[in-house]
Amino acid sequence: MSEIVSHLAAIRETLPAGVTLVAVSKTHPAELIREAYDAGQRIFGESRPQELREKYETLPKDIEWHMIGHLQTNKIKYIAPFVTMIQSVDSARLAEAIQTQAAKYGRVIDILLELHVAAEETKTGWDLDELREYLSAHPFDRLPNLRVRGVMGIATNTDDETVVRRDFETLRRSFEALRPLFGEAFDTLSMGMSHDYRLAVACGSTMVRVGSSIFGERDYSK
After folding, report:
1. 123 and 161 in contact (C-beta within 8 Å)?
2. How many Cα atoms occupy the beta-carbon half-sphere of 141 within 13 Å?
3. Is residue 8 a contact partner of residue 36, using CB atoms and an 8 Å limit?
4. Percent of the chain scored above 90 by pLDDT?
5. Which helix (H) or strand (E) element contains residue 113?
6. Potential cystine with 114: which of 79, 90, 149, 204 (Cβ 3.0-4.6 Å)?
7. What value does the mean pLDDT take over residues 201-207?
8. If DSSP codes are grouped into helix, strand and coil, which group holds residue 208?
9. Please, are residues 89 and 95 in contact by the beta-carbon 8 Å criterion?
């Protein structure tokens, strides 16, 4: 059994029913993704549109690809024909640009609204009050090719579990507060990565994004 297969099995054992695993494969080669695929994993997360497009073209077509990184509007065209979910929708401008591309290809694309809860200013995402103001005008009535499935967020990068738990609980409360605006389709709270996904699950996460615990550390030189 390869390391990837054993890592996947170990992580799955820690996830309760109802929690979806996104295997974060960014910067990792297609052959490693294929190992995870052969072990039954079908949902993979990427952060670079061109890299995602290349992998889509060489790997099995029943993979569900999630865009999890910051997305520039001029890069949506690379992934709009096939991407399953865009988790990192952090502005009205981006939502409108995704609508344009989704309509062009006759698709409805699932999205998550990315909220900024971390202490670091470098993290992207909506402030909750800012997002509430945007939603008060019912913008998604005009964006029929987008389906808002929930919320995504990243906790503060710290070893202080109290801070991380606070961030996750803020995300969960925000998710619950926004849910009545969207109905039953609003069912996804994506939070938790390799180092903190267990805590995220304890705080109510329904989707975790795990990369290095499956594939090993990323090669940032690529």
Report:
1. no
2. 7
3. yes
4. 93
5. strand 109-115
6. 90
7. 98
8. strand
9. yes
Q: Whose structure tokens read 């694309």? A: 109
CATH of the domain at 9: 3.20.20.10
8 Å CB contact between 67 and 49: yes
Q: How far apart are CA 221 and CA 125, in angstroms?
A: 26
The Cα 190–Cα 93 span in angstroms is 22
Q: What is the pTM of this model?
A: 0.95
Q: What total of structural domains would you count in the chain?
A: 1
The DSSP annotation for 48-63 comes to -HHHHHHHHHHS-TT-
For residue 128, what are the domain limits?
3-215
> Whose structure tokens read 């849910």?
179
Q: Does 219 have pLDDT greater than 60? A: no
Q: Which residues pair with 45 in a beta bridge?
A: 24, 66
Confirm whether 222 is domain-assigned: no
The count of other CB atoms within 10 Å of the CB of residue 34 is 16
Measure the N-to-C terminal CA separation of the chain; round to a whole number of Å: 28
